[in-house]
């Protein structure tokens, strides 16, 4: 069944997802785009690319003995994926406990409850409101049980909750501004009687005939076609995954991470910015200080970066209890440890398109990775003024 989503030879030979698969389906009320992100730790950068475009996360957990435990233990992929999903803006999570039909599980309520009771505190610690934003349900992906329709009591006597499609239909996704400035991070491009770019519209509405900018190279382009789920449309709005055909630019002049942007209010293009970072877990013997190097993942951008200055360490406990009228002097650290929250200045070699998290969350949240491990998550808190891609000293 994985052949449906895993279409390249590497995936079919290895039996695991490598690229981010893309498919569409509709319920009676909603049209969904599935972004099938890889779960294997070697392909986390591809998972980040998929998750950065998603509104809802469906976290698939195996109920089979040993498989859940392997993903959940320290350093396991379940833990890293939950953390990345939250950081990348996936605000709603459905935890589907799969393989409940497996002979060693046999729709066991005890096994289901065990997994839910272990996952809930971890999800809470990762920033999710478990009561409001997380849904748990049992399924069998192999048999399709409890996915499209509610399962019969003869299969599972103790479950009287909804099926997966019901949960998907009920979830309220964050509203975006259809009248705002156009922001569409480009995840891929190809040539087809013109240049076609793919991505998810995060803000604004794109119409056939529009004049837009491809940033950061400031190229003026014209929209000559829009496709949605392989159907041609005249316009598309926020949260839509689209293919936009452009004139005025060649496909070799576009890279993943560029942003399709409105002319009147273009996205910022910078080589330096200030960020608030939470350090998760550094590699052994690593010190987080000025000069620290990592790989920055922000929307569809992947760039090497360097921490050039630690500005302030924030004590989150004291911040909660602090009197806002009493301003204390900033604590400028020389280095910080695991678990610290710090405001720092980050520098990259090439111009990248980002926004303040408070203005456009999807273009302002990011992760830092090094040697295949996520070491920090953060948000952009200050970008240089337009026309000046770096801060003055």
TrEMBL record:
It holds the Pfam family GTP-eEF1A_C. SUPFAM superfamilies: EF-Tu/eEF-1alpha/eIF2-gamma C-terminal domain, P-loop containing nucleoside triphosphate hydrolases, Translation proteins. One of its GO terms (molecular function) is GTPase activity. Transmembrane segments: none annotated. InterPro entries: EFTu-like_2 (IPR004161), G_TR_CS (IPR031157), GTP-eEF1A_C (IPR054696), P-loop_NTPase (IPR027417), T_Tr_GTP-bd_dom (IPR000795), TRAFAC_GTPase_members (IPR050100), Transl_B-barrel_sf (IPR009000), Transl_elong_EF1A/Init_IF2_C (IPR009001). Residues 1-179 form the Tr-type G domain. Keywords: GTP-binding, Methylation, Nucleotide-binding. This protein promotes the GTP-dependent binding of aminoacyl-tRNA to the A-site of ribosomes during protein biosynthesis. Belongs to the TRAFAC class translation factor GTPase superfamily. Classic translation factor GTPase family. EF-Tu/EF-1A subfamily. This is Tr-type G domain-containing protein. It comes from Oryza brachyantha (malo sina). The lineage of its organism: Eukaryota, Viridiplantae, Streptophyta, Embryophyta, Tracheophyta.
């Amino acid at each position: 069944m994985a052949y449906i989503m895993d279409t390249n030879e590497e995936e079919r030979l290895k039996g695991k997802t490598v690229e981010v698969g893309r498919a569409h389906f509709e319920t009676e009320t909603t049209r969904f785009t599935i972004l099938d992100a890889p779960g294997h730790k070697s392909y986390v950068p591809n998972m980040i690319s998929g998750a950065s475009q998603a509104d809802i996360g469906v976290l698939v957990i195996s109920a089979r003995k040993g498989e859940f435990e392997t993903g959940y233990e320290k350093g396991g992929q379940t833990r890293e994926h939950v953390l990345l999903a939250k950081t990348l803006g996936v605000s709603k999570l459905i935890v589907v406990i799969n393989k409940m039909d497996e002979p060693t599980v046999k729709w066991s309520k005890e096994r289901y409850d065990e997994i839910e009771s272990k996952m809930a505190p971890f999800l809470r610690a990762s920033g999710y409101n478990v009561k409001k934003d997380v849904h748990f349900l049992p399924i069998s992906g192999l048999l399709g049980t409890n996915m499209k329709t509610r399962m019969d009591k003869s299969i599972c006597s103790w479950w009287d909750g909804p099926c997966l499609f019901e949960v998907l239909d009920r979830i309220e996704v964050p509203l975006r501004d259809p009248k705002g400035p156009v922001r569409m991070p480009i995840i891929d491009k190809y040539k087809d009687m013109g240049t076609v770019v793919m991505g998810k519209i995060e803000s604004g509405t794109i119409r056939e005939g529009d004049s837009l900018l491809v940033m950061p190279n400031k190229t003026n382009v014209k929209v000559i076609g829009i496709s949605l789920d392989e159907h041609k449309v005249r316009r598309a709005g926020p949260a839509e995954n689209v293919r936009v055909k452009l004139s005025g630019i060649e496909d070799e002049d576009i890279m993943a991470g560029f942003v399709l942007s409105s002319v009147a209010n273009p996205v910022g293009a910078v080589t330096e910015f200030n960020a608030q970072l939470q350090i998760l877990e550094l590699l052994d013997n690593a010190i987080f200080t000025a000069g620290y190097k990592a790989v920055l993942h922000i929307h569809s951008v992947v760039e090497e970066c360097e921490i050039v200055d630690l500005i302030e360490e924030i004590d989150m406990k004291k911040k909660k209890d602090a009197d806002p009228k009493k301003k204390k002097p900033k604590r400028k650290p020389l280095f910080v440890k695991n678990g610290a929250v710090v405001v720092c200045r980050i520098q990259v070699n090439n111009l990248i398109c980002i926004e303040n998290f408070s203005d456009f969350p999807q273009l302002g949240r990011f992760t830092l990775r090094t040697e295949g491990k996520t070491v920090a998550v953060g948000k952009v808190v200050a970008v240089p003024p337009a026309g000046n891609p770096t801060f003055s000293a």
